[in-house]
Amino acid sequence: MTEIRQSQEKTYAVQYGDRRLPFRWRLLSVDGGKARIHVYPDGLVEVETPQHTTLADAKKALLKRARWVTLHLTDIESRRAEVLEREYVSGETVFYLGRRYRLKIVQSSGERHVKMLRGQVRVTTPDTSKKSIKRSLYAWYRDRANDVFARRIAMVGEQLSWIKETPSWSIRDMKTQWGSCSPSGAILLNPHLIKTPTRCIDYVILHELCHLKEHNHSQAFYRLMAHAMPDWERVKADLDQLSELYLSE
Ligand SMILES: [Zn+2]
């Protein structure tokens, strides 16, 4: 299973007024000195404290700067809301295979289709309501996903000795996963993956295909991954970083 924005690291939290502030805690390798607090662009709060300090020290340090952290987070959240709120009008950005395209809406008297044209994704439709555009665009994404994923599965599978024939797969909308592999070996891929770079698609496919041999996240599993895609961790990081943009419908 390829989780969306999976965080391997444990998070903690402090309560500040009526707000819960989750954070990641790291111990620095230096002795003494001040705690450091970072707020990352994606809203992740990280507290670094000197060696030999405790979780309680980290919480105390965060609470001391809680006002500053909260201001930052509020700012990030309002900017994010803007990014995520789609109107489905001409000029908006849409993603396809990791590239940005301009959405262009063309009202027709009956024709209905979606085409890629000179850096645009052009939706031609008699009904230019948000709901209708969203539906047309989504249908187009699914269509492209079926086509592209079939090719990528064949290509990625070709390099894997345990794949003798194309495994059965289908696309399914999933809120928390890019892909999954059932115990019986059925692979599901998130159609929104079509918005991400081909390398990210390959990474998710590879992850699921490796599960056909290793049904867990054991060392043996990660060895298979590393053998087929030595830089998979970097690809995963790219995918994680932009997942919010890709998943905004
Ligand atoms: Zn997995």
UniProtKB/TrEMBL annotation:
Protein name: M48 family metallopeptidase
Database matches in CDD domains: M48_yhfN_like
Start and end residues of each YgjP-like metallopeptidase domain: 35-241
Pfam families from the UniProt entry: YgjP-like
Recorded coiled-coil stretches: none
Matches recorded under Gene3D superfamilies: Metalloproteases ('zincins'), catalytic domain
Entry-linked InterPro entries: UTP_pyrophosphatase-like (IPR053136), YgjP-like_metallopeptidase (IPR002725)
Domain of life: Bacteria
